[in-house]
Automatic annotation (TrEMBL):
Gene3D superfamilies: P-loop containing nucleotide triphosphate hydrolases (3.40.50.300). This is ABC transporter ATP-binding protein. Pfam families: ABC_tran. Residues 270-289 are annotated as: Disordered. Residues 23-256 form the ABC transporter domain. Belongs to the ABC transporter superfamily. Keywords: ATP-binding, Nucleotide-binding, Transport. Residues 271-289 have a biased composition (Basic and acidic residues). GO terms for molecular function: ATP binding.
Amino acid sequence: MTTADDAAPTTGLIELGAAPVHLSAERASFAYDSRHIALAEVNLELHEGEALALIGPNGAGKSTFLKGVLGLIPTVSGSLSVLGQPPRKASRRIGYMPQSDDIDPEFPVTLRQVVMMGRYRSLGPLRWPGSGDRRAVNEALERVGLAEQAGKHFGSLSGGQQQRGMLARAIVSEPSMLLLDEPFNGLDRSNREALLELLGELRASGTSIIVSTHDFEIATAACTHVLLLNRCQIEFGTVDSVLTSEALAETFDHATADDEAHGHYNTGHGHYHETGFRGTELEGGARGE
Ligand SMILES: Nc1ncnc2c1ncn2[C@@H]1O[C@H](COP(=O)(O)OP(=O)(O)OP(=O)(O)O)[C@@H](O)[C@H]1O
């Protein structure tokens, strides 16, 4: 058995002319405690500039996978290499936008200060932000269309603006890889389109992206690859090859069967019915029909 930390560092270049490998998982399994595997047997490879959508019901393991890539939870079997390194060592080169944030809206902090938090890891313990850091913050705010709000109290911004601020924080250190947990939730159409455009620009500059989403339209518009999950890998491949009605049925129906059989995890089956995810996208919008 190998673990992430045992994985041999690679140069990231697998063959002449190939794009560098940014993420490589071989039978990787993740756990929060020693008794329960939260997500089992992931096998995939993602290259520079590619984008991966994580799709599965509630409790399927999407956030768990992101935490595994960040090295916040261990790879308990198999191996995971991130940017050619074990996950914890690569985390400085990763930008992360969590699903919900820990910033109390009452906390007296400006948007500019929130974005500067994204520079602290690269600043190190004994260095104050310099002009380069301030320039990076301004540029990140510019990219998400919030330059004019920089001095505002973070808590006074709208929900969509706060989300864009968190995205600015995730990209301010120019990460090689960007992880986004449900970034499109609650965004209106124009904010969604602006985010899609920004993700396209980041990919064109070589950033790889992993995005957890419940939205097929986003997966198709923003991503090159899809990982279907339900506590284990159901399927991985290019968007066109994976988003078939059969694979989606397996991902979501399997959830119901397991949930009923074992009653031990939240599949979110009802949620997908309620939102029309299965009723609309699976039947009408899925590929391969
Ligand atoms: N901090 C934790 N400690 C122990 N188990 C956890 C923890 N967080 C998640 N899990 C378990 O790991 C499994 C996968 O959960 P995860 O949050 O990764 O799913 P998800 O696909 O991101 O769900 P959602 O769409 O609801 O955000 C679930 O069984 C969940 O209960």
